[in-house]
Amino acid sequence: MKSFLKSLRTRYAFYRQCYLDAKRFRDSISPGKLGPAAAVARIEGDIVRQYHVIEKGLTMQDFRPGFGKDVVRGLVRSMRAMEKHPCAARCDSGQLAAARATLREYHERHAALGHDISEILPDNCRDLWENATPGDGGSRPFTPVAPGDADAFERVVRSRASVRSFDAARTPSRETIMAAVDLAMRSPSVCNRQTARVHVFTGADAQRALSFQSGNRGFGHRIPMVIIVTSDLRYFTGTAERYQGWIDGGMFSMLLLLALHTQGLGAVSLNWSVNNERDRELRKAVTIPEYERVIMLIGCGYPAQNALIPVSLRRAGSEITRWNFPVVPT
Question: Residues 6 or more apart from 233 whose CB is under 8 A from it?
Fold first, then answer.
C-alpha cells in the first residue's frame, strides 16, 4: 500500500508540473489573458511570421508568380490591425520596416514580370510598402563562408569550454555583453520570430538569481555576472508550437556562449531543470514576466588567471551518426 501511494504521489506531481507548463503556454498565447499592453506582441509575432513566409517564397529557385496570396493578405490585415492597436508604439519598428520592405519586393518582383497581383495587393494598400527601404526585408544574395573563416570557427568551437574560475574583481561591460548578444541574434528561430530574451544581473542581484539554481555550488560566489535566457511565448501560435520556446531558446543560448567566448569572456551553462514552484520563486526575485519561459542561466565573467577546465571527453562524431543511405566511396 505504501509503495502504491508513493507511486500515486509521484505520478500526480509529474502531471501537475506538466499542467503548469501547459498553462503558462496557454495563457501566454491568449490575448485576453495578457491585456492590451502585452498582447501587442501577438500581432507583431503574426507580422514577423507572415513576412518571413513571403521572404522564403522570394528566395525560391522556381519562383511562382502569385505565390502566398493568403499569407500576403494576412500580413496586410495584421499590419492594419497594428496601426489601430492602442499599444502599437510598443511594436518593434524594425520588424514593421522589414514587413514593408518585403511587401515592396513582392510587388516589384511581380511588376517586373508583368504579372497582375492587384487582387492580392490592391492599390489601397500601397501606403504599406511604397516608402519602404529596400534591403530592410525580402531577399539578398547568399554569402558563402570565406576560406579562413572555417578554420577560425573551428578554433572558437574547440576552445570554448565551461569556465568555473572567474576573476571576481572584473565585471564585463555592457558594450561587451551587447556585442555577444547581437551575434547570438543570428541564431535561427521559427519563422524568424526571435523570441529569445536576455536578463543580465551583477553583484547581489546575480547572487540572488544563483541562489535558486543548484548547480553552482563551490564556485557560484565568484561569478560576477549572471545571464538568464528566456523565450517570449507570446510570439508562438497554437499547441503545435508548445515546445518551440525551448528549441529556439536553446539554439540562441549556444550561439551566445560562443559569442561570449569570442569576446574574451568565460561562461558556464547552468541548467534550469526545476519544478514550477522554484521557477515561480526565481521570477518573483528577479522580475521575469510570466509569459517568458526560462531556458537557462549562464554564469559569465573574465576567467581567473591560470583557470582550469574539465577535460570533458566528447564522443566521436562517428559514434553518434547513423547513415540512412549507402555511402559512396570518394
Answer: 24, 25, 28, 29, 195, 245, 291, 292, 293
* Nearby residues of 134 by Cβ (< 8 Å), 6 or more positions away: 101, 104, 105
The model's pLDDT over 279-326, given as tens digits with 9 standing for 90+, comes to 999 999 999 999 999 999 999 999 999 999 999 999 999 999 999 988
Q: Under the phi-then-psi rule, with left for phi > 0, alpha for psi from -120 to 50, and beta for the rest, what region is 132? A: beta
Domain definitions of the chain by residue range: 35-128, 147-301
Predicted confidence at residue 73, as pLDDT, reads: 97
Structural contact between residues 89 and 98, judged by C-beta atoms closer than 8 angstroms: no
- In CATH, the number for domain 147-301 is 3.40.109.10
Q: At 293, which helix (H) or strand (E)? A: strand 292-301
For the full predicted model, state whether its pTM sits above 0.90: yes
Residue 252 neighbours by CB distance under 10 Å: 27
